Structure formats: C-alpha cells, structure tokens
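Exercise 7.
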Amino acid sequence: MAKVTISLDSDLAIEVMLLAGTRSPQDAVELIVLDYLATSRRTEALAGDAADQHRLADRRQGPEEG
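Solution. The predicted structure, written as tokens, is:
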C-alpha cells in the first residue's frame, strides 16, 4: 500500500493520540481513519445509500395495517 505524508497541527495530533490511546501520531491517525471508514460502511449497510432511494419512493404514506 502506498504511503501518504500529511502534516497536522501539534495540538490536533496530541488530541488524536489521546483519543486513540496511542503513543504515535501515525498510529492514531490510521486507527481513527479506519474506524471512520468502518462506521461509514456499517451505516450504509443499515440505512442504504443514494442508489437505494427507489426502494423508499414506492412505500405508502399511510399507517401500516396489521
């Protein structure tokens, strides 16, 4: 996998390290990005995405029977 170098404000890097519980800013940023991506995938799996809008358009607006 290719590596990318970015620069962060030192206060932001320290906050990320504390949040992630790591001693390395590199590890902290990687963990937070991976968690963000995993959360996004779980949300899409539960709620769908823009391509699933056709399913919602066919639903009735009235109360459910039963």
